[in-house]
Design goal:
The structure is a single chain. By secondary structure, the chain is mainly alpha-helical. It has five helices and two strands. It starts with 7 loop residues before the first helix and ends with a helix.
Amino acid sequence: MGGWSKPLELFADQVEDDLVEHQKQIVVDLVDEITSRAPIDSGQYMANNIVSIGSPDYSVKRDLDTLGTSTRGTAKAALSNLKPFSLVYIQNNVVYGEIIEFGGYNGPTLKVNEAGYSRMAPKGVYGLSFISVTEALK
């Protein structure tokens, strides 16, 4: 005779735990992509890639991070209390963040290409990171 090897409430708990771990991994992968694509001058843009749960965090940090190590660690720490079905935000609030993503610098210069993008991020950061991570999920 067939049956469940576990009570259904334990199965539901396991599904929620798996969901949280999967969501954490997606966020970690996104932050890894963002930090690998982020242009580095002073390190302020890198340090301001912020992860928050439930609501956006509009702060701007004065920290500098030229390697991404601190940024990745802070992102992982922010996920420590993630609950199932939570909305997670990844954002960058430095004033020039939109210009890095969409272009608009006056160029060309040593740091800016003809299209107005940072030469270190000639097609932006967040959009390409999102595409890369979602493609890996397929």
